[in-house]
């Protein structure tokens, strides 16, 4: 692999940069799988509440179907140079059952409230169990910055 002059960040700096991106980014790639239908990947808008990622999708979408059958998911921020991968289990809330603070924060971030739509939507909450973050080859070692739901030092 070619080196690009990247200075290797320590875990604390990677954590800080990752948390900043989780607050400021709009899109996340969501990877799910279904025992009968196989893998599925789609970009969704997301909200980071400081502990978990909140997304929303049509209640009839492949993503909704998949997380109901198999809640393990992987999330990826959309930058292949500044990689952030999160892994966890999805918890689903129908639009009428979602916690109000999460729904209000989601609506405030995007200017769109799925609860007001005619069709039914599913809110998906993922509390990360592991997080990997790296910028190029110099950061491949030490890329795990959260393990078993605990940020590493």
Automatic annotation (TrEMBL):
Pfam families: PNPOx_N. One of its GO terms (cellular component) is cytosol. SUPFAM superfamilies: FMN-binding split barrel (SSF50475). It comes from the Bacteria. The keyword Oxidoreductase applies. The keyword Ribonucleoprotein does not apply. This is Pyridoxamine 5'-phosphate oxidase N-terminal domain-containing protein. It comes from Actinoallomurus iriomotensis.
